[in-house]
Amino acid sequence: MDVNFYVTCIGDALKSHMARDSVLLLEKLGCRIHFLERQGCCGQPAINSGYIQDAKPAMKKLIETFEANSFPIISPAGSCTYAIKGYAKYLADEPKWAIRAENIANRMFDLTSFIVHQLGVVDVGACLNGKAVYHPSCSLFRKMGVKEEPLTLLRHVKGLELLPFENMETCCGFGGTFSVKMAEISGEMVKEKVHHIMDVKPDYLIGADVSCLLNIGGRLEREGHPVKVLHIAQVLMSHEEELCH
């Protein structure tokens, strides 16, 4: 299957290993990856801050970029996926652009739901030994309803034990510009999240949104907790020989 990969700003600038493993995973599952070089920021920071008019040029550029073909568009970040899926409502006063935006939205998938529902795969053959907690990001879980797909994939990782923890579905406090504008509240939210995570003493913190992982991981590091932070793509590309044979 031919697919487009939308790398996202964080994947491009800060977490290249996550982007690499997302591409390798899709290739492992039989996808041919297309990387449209004109892709750029989805405009989410401006949108979330209320600067809709200022964000429209970025929206239109991305729409034009992904109109180069008709293949599915896969993103490893729920927040970016949700932002792009919402373009049509922001462009409602320009009907032709709104229709084009809707066409792009219909081709947009987050990585985990694409693997489970479009490729029909629940076991990718990954192996990772240890105990882990999964943080469901607000964008995936609340806004897009993607709840079971990441968990289904993780439950099929050999050697990995998923641990429940208190208030696991509560926001980590990042929220993009929220963490800047409401820094004190955000700080208390992530502090509470880390407290609940460490109650179960995991080896790994796993998530499907890098922004949340940066926030929680930063707090874990500042508190001196030896928990390895991994995007789900990195977990699904794990292969420990003693477990896989």
From TrEMBL:
Ranges for domain Cysteine-rich: 3-85, 133-216
Gene Ontology cellular-component terms listed: cytosol
InterPro entries, sorted: Cys_rich_dom
Pfam families: CCG
GO molecular-function terms, A-Z: oxidoreductase activity
Domain of life according to the entry: Bacteria
Protein name: Putative L-lactate dehydrogenase Fe-S oxidoreductase subunit
Source organism (scientific name): Proteus myxofaciens ATCC 19692
